[in-house]
């Protein structure tokens, strides 16, 4: 299909209308772009953002986008015509028939599916105008935007190293892509959200790891016997733990891993962590690992947690769950047996140690048809 470019005309979507900006939008653009969340993830916006900045965007900035073959739309409520967001297409590469989409939603319209509807509408219009590929870039921590990408049919393609620039320097961005011949339905997820946001057996509860868990996780993974059974067996770095907590939801959305906190179901107090690593989706093969604070050991929590997480994983498509322990870690081996895992083998030199050494690993596995043994 020849690339014709987008017409500067309104586009109707599901509960939204994409239209050119108007002078009457100045107040709403200024308020939305001064919002702390908008400023956080669109860090190249002027700060503070004023009515003068909004007026410049409406009269000059958005016009320049159109002049270069892109599109810059206000997203309006069809019932009132009030601005509730923005969506645009830029970096249009005519030889490659590709472009990049971006959006923001005003604080007074969040939680209504505005970004998803606007993204779908503009993406469809871009394909109708001849584009073959539309890309969407998100910050690692901007998981609401990543959910929009998935809901609008975009698929995670990889990480663009140092592709973002902001007030604090350069940073990586996650690339999401939708192709013209791809379905518009929400992209499938290997690891969906937990039902109700947690797993709970009345004694133990599992919830996703959050950015504010950094203190707890650093303390847990710094316990000497936890360090000794880590891969590799070295003490954690605080910066690495903070990054892991910040990126946990994004990695879950990508289907790479599900990091969870093991907590007491009654009090909610964190007691340990457990992770599911979906390292071989084509064959349905995943593995788990876990650790517990010393004060919470001896109560059967890790076996309950392993059972809860494994059974949920089987429900969402994992076909085989594995786990490994050091040969002398008899406590962890008993945990796995109580959670329904069976010992399958002995893997020589599988795990890295310190100073270039290697350690053997005892392999356990559970299949959907295996019952609990404890």
TrEMBL record:
PROSITE patterns: GNAT (PS51186). It comes from the Bacteria. Gene3D superfamilies: 3.40.630.30. GO terms for molecular function: protein N-terminal-serine acetyltransferase activity; protein-N-terminal-alanine acetyltransferase activity. GO terms for cellular component: cytoplasm. Pfam families: Acetyltransf_3 (PF13302). Residues 16-180, 204-368 form the N-acetyltransferase domain. This is N-acetyltransferase domain-containing protein. It comes from Polymorphospora rubra. The lineage of its organism: Bacteria, Bacillati, Actinomycetota, Actinomycetes, Micromonosporales.
